[in-house]
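User: Second chain of the day. Same drill as before.
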Amino acid sequence: MRESSRDPVSVVEVDVKPCYREEESAPDEQRFVFSYTITIHNPTAHSIQLLARYWKITQGTGKVQEVRGKGVVGKQPLIGPGQSFRYTSRAVLESPVGVMEGAYTCIDTSSQRAFDVPIAPFRLAGPNQVH
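Assistant: Same format as last time:
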């Protein structure tokens, strides 16, 4: 199979590194701050552009929040063939544990075809949390 014929949905890679931000959190006030650094890698032969994001945040209490918006961190990055885009953002929870998952809506700039890139669930956990 030629690289250019690969389906971008199945090959665009998303790597997530979550981190508890103790200095910004206030557990006595039910405020738990997490940062997460995401790297999106485009191994296809075409440029892709990230247009929108969707997040589903499930807190340890069971509360679910959904977030939709244009781009990420105020940008709609164009990611060239073989290139990556990395950004860091934050989530504020009311409990010391939670799970985030979601998807990016992208477009293949060559075919103008839109597609979603799933973001696998990842865990947010404060210190000493084994949940």
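Strands lie at 13-20, 32-41, 48-59, 64-70, 78-79, 84-93, 97-108, 113-125.

User: Great, on to the next one.
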